């Protein structure tokens, strides 16, 4: 229990005995009412009810229990039973007899009602806590297609997935993460489609986690991914059920974490972050067009501002004659060199974006208007920036939002700054050098030990038709090679 | 060490690039057009100095002047560049050069030294246009044309448009250099002339090596195009005069023509060259008696046009041979018909005037409009 030692060292000098988790010798203790109550001492949300005439005690945490189920499973049978029949009632299969105290406490924490009778302890899980209802995802909205999305309850999320994959082959392994929080983490895979090596590797990584708490799927991703020091996200997370299920059937594995609407899928490639469920719900030509648009947006967002800086600082020869005079004219009033001008504007856009992201919608609009006017007009009129830079910065900002994955789009916005600085120092040479460095870095990355640049490196041409374009469904006959599925063919339809 | 090596490599790449030569846009003066002339030295009349003018577009939003013209007289081009740089607060750069103009004076004494300087400078495009000015190039460039505030751009676009219309060949630094080094063709360049309020294309300059020899008159330019190259979108205006009759005026556009040059050996080893052009075009204007909807009449007109074209073409070939300039590139075809060994023994300049050249051609009117 590393983490606790560290906590104690950092915190109080004298460790408080209550902070200590259950000592090993307590494991074999038989569950007793008094002992259980003692464990939950000072827990105001613990409910202790008893039927003294029948010698039955119920202990549970009130807000975890579904009222309806409580009435059906506890109130009705036990109120109606005569004291002699209690043992018979408890013999029903839904009441599990619990042998040791630790399990019982854990069951209570999981939403079970503990029943003490005649020196024995039983538990029945009636967990039905309040959760957010199933809503539309705000971060991954689509126009066509299903609108339900995951919420913070793992049970709901599993049910959403199970409802879409009606197969006993869909296996769900339950793991726990967080030494204090004991958060449930489920690893989902379809036997016969998923490669078990990936499943084992993922389970191993999750089991190796030793932190006090993990609060979100996006946080879990960073703990289990291959290269935590890379800018790029290695596993995509999604809030959309359809997208999660499509990954499951592609032979990838899912990780569902309780308390987080973000479901992790693995392994993944860089290019997967540029596809959206929308691509599949529209005619294939439109889907293809959108895919190409997104990769164009990637190039625009990475290179536009940097190219402006490089060209205006070093390569006046590259500018077409007609553009040259307008560009010079708009630059002539600007007091800074292009690189400072560009960094200033990029920074302002990032400020605006960050401010807008945290504020409620109503104030966010104000920010948008103020930012639009301040940046769009005043900065140019005041001679702080040139018109053309505004266009470059704005179009690269817009292009960055075309990328469907928020995490990926944020990573790309960050590396843009490096490119701008390199372009300011070395011109197009610097731009090309940084692009080369990015590609070198990308090719070194792995996602669950498979290449992050699949299907480009290693080159798998058969996958290209579902990565760079969205080919018609009759052409998409095999699962992606990255998932190394034992069952490769997914579409056997003839015409 | 393991970490220092890649860092050192990155630092080397960054430093060895030597990118200290920043050229920030607003501190540059882009030379758009350059003109070269020879002028007599004031003190020593026999000596000739170089007059260089450059046209620099200005981007000052408040200023009325859209451009600045700098000129200097110097011994050499390098000297001139230094002199010119002293006249402006901005850094003179030639990476946006579009056209270079040579006055007749300098064209007569050879322009290769100056064209070569353009080829050498890596920042100058190979697409810079070369033109000869009938008169003083510096004056043409320095003059203000009220309707065309930016003279450099005006000249560039004029040449570009004329080349698109195929009335003058598109001659860039690349073309000039290629034709200069090729021993089977002589270089050409469009001629510009200063008008009162504008600049006009005034013929085609014919070079021998890099020396201006003679010119093609403006009305003969389409014929030259037909003989020299394939034309994609040309225009022809022809007056056909028959003795005792009124002249027929014919205007043909959307011309597509193909030129074929065939070289064969005669019985005594001499070369027989046949230049054949096939012209197809749309009849746009016709002032004459023939009825175009009648096939026989149309054939008749086609014949007359062909005859007129051939007459001009023969005259042109004769003129070229008289001046011993092979602007049509016949030498290339002759060279291709023999071995290199044989070609290197041949004195082309001596052979060319005596060559048996025959021009044949045909003209087809493919369309004559809706109204007959």
TrEMBL record, chain B:
* Top-level lineage group: Bacteria
Annotated Spore germination protein N-terminal domain ranges read 21-193
| N-terminal signal peptide | none
Provide the Spore germination GerAC-like C-terminal domain boundaries: 202-369
Compartments, record wording: Membrane
User: How does this protein lie in the membrane?
Assistant: Lipid-anchor
One GO cellular component term noted in the UniProt record for this chain? membrane
Under the heading InterPro entries, the entry gives: GerAC_N, Spore_GerAC-like, Spore_GerAC-like_C, Spore_GerAC_C_sf
**In the UniProt record, does the keyword Membrane occur?**
yes
Q: Which UniProt keywords apply?
A: Germination, Lipoprotein, Membrane, Palmitate, Signal
Q: Which Pfam family, an example, fits this chain?
A: Spore_GerAC
> Could you mention a single GO BP entry for this protein?
spore germination
Family indicated by similarity: Belongs to the GerABKC lipoprotein family.
Q: Which NCBIfam families match?
A: spore_ger_x_C (TIGR02887)
Q: What is this protein called?
A: Ger(X)C family spore germination protein
User: What organism does this protein naturally occur in?
Assistant: Paenibacillus arenilitoris
């Amino acid at each position: 229990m590393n983490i606790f030692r560290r906590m104690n060292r950092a915190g109080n000098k004298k460790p408080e005995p209550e902070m200590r988790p259950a000592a090993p010798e307590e494991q074999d203790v038989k569950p007793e009412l008094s002992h259980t109550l003692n464990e939950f001492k000072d827990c105001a949300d613990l409910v202790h009810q008893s039927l003294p005439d029948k010698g039955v005690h119920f202990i549970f945490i009130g807000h975890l229990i579904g009222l309806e189920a409580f009435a059906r499973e506890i109130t009705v049978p036990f109120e109606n039973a005569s004291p002699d029949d209690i043992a018979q009632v408890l013999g029903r299969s839904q009441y599990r007899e619990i042998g040791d105290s630790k399990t019982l406490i854990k069951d209570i924490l999981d939403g079970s009602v503990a029943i003490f009778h005649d020196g024995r302890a039983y538990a029945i899980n009636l967990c039905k806590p309040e959760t957010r209802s199933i809503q539309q995802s705000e971060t991954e909205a689509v126009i066509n297609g299903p609108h339900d999305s995951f919420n913070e309850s793992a049970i709901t999320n599993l049910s959403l997935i199970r409802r879409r994959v009606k197969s006993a082959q869909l296996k769900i392994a339950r793991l726990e993460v967080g030494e204090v929080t004991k958060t449930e983490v489920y690893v989902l895979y379809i036997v016969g489609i998923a490669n078990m090596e990936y499943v084992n590797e993922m389970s191993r990584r999750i089991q190796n986690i030793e932190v006090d708490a993990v609060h979100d799927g996006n946080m879990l991703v960073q703990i289990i991914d291959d290269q935590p020091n890379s800018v790029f996200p290695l596993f995509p997370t999604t809030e959309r059920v359809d997208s999660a299920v499509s990954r499951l059937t592609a032979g990838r594995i899912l990780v569902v974490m309780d308390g987080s609407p973000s479901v992790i899928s693995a392994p993944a490639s860089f290019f997967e972050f540029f596809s959206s469920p929308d691509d599949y719900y529209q005619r294939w030509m439109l889907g293809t067009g959108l895919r190409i648009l997104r990769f164009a947006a990637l190039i625009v967002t990475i290179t536009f501002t940097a190219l402006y800086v490089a060209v205006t600082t070093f390569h006046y020869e590259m500018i077409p004659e007609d553009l040259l005079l307008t560009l010079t004219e708009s630059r002539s009033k600007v007091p800074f060199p292009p690189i400072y001008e560009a960094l200033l504007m990029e920074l302002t856009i990032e400020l605006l974006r960050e401010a807008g992201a945290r504020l409620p919608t109503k104030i966010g609009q104000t920010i948008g208007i103020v930012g639009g006017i301040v940046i769009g007009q005043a900065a140019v009129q005041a001679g702080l920036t040139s018109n053309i830079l505004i266009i470059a910065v704005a179009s690269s900002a817009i292009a960055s939002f075309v990328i469907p994955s928020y995490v990926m789009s944020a990573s790309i916005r960050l590396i843009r700054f490096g490119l701008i600085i390199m372009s300011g120092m070395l011109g197009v040479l610097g731009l090309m050098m940084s692009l080369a460095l990015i590609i070198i870095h990308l090719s070194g990355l792995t996602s669950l030990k498979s290449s992050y640049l699949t299907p480009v490196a290693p080159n798998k041409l058969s996958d290209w038709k579902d990565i760079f374009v969205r080919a018609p469904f009759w052409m998409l006959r095999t699962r992606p090679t990255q998932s190394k599925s034992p069952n490769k063919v997914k579409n056997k339809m003839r015409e | 060490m393991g970490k220092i090596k890649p860092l050192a490599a990155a630092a080397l790449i960054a430093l060895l690039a030597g990118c200290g030569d920043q050229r920030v846009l607003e501190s540059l003066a882009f030379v758009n057009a350059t003109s070269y002339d020879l002028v007599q030295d004031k003190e020593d009349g026999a000596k000739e100095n170089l007059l260089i003018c450059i046209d620099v577009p200005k981007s000052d939003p408040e200023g009325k002047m859209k451009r600045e013209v700098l000129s200097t007289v110097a011994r050499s081009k390098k000297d001139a560049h230094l002199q010119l740089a002293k006249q402006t607060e901005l850094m003179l750069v030639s990476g946006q050069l579009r056209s270079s103009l040579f006055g007749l004076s300098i064209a007569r004494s050879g322009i290769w030294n100056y064209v070569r300087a353009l080829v050498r400078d890596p920042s100058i495009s190979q697409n810079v246009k070369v033109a000869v000015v009938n008169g003083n190039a510096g004056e043409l460039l320095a003059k203000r044309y009220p309707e065309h505030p930016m003279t450099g751009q005006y000249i560039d676009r004029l040449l570009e448009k004329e080349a698109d219309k195929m009335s003058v060949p598109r001659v860039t630094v690349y073309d000039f250099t290629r034709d200069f080094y090729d021993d089977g063709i002589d270089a050409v360049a469009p001629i510009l002339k200063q008008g009162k309020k504008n600049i006009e294309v005034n013929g085609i300059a014919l070079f021998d090596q890099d020396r201006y020899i003679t010119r093609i008159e403006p009305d003969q330019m389409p014929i030259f195009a037909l003989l020299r190259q394939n034309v994609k979108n040309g225009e022809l205006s022809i007056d056909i005069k028959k003795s005792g009759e009124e002249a027929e005026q014919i205007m043909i556009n959307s011309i597509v023509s193909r030129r074929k040059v065939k070289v064969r050996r005669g019985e005594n080893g001499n070369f027989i060259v046949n230049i054949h052009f096939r012209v197809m075009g749309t009849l746009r204007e016709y002032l004459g008696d023939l009825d175009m909807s009648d096939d026989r009449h149309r054939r008749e007109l086609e014949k007359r046009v062909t005859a007129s074209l051939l007459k001009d073409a023969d005259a042109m070939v004769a003129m070229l041979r008289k001046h011993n300039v092979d602007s049509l590139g016949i030498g290339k075809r002759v060279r291709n018909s023999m071995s290199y060994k044989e070609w290197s023994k041949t004195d082309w300049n001596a052979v060319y005037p005596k060559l048996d050249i025959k021009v044949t051609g045909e003209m087809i009117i493919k369309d004559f409009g809706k109204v007959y």
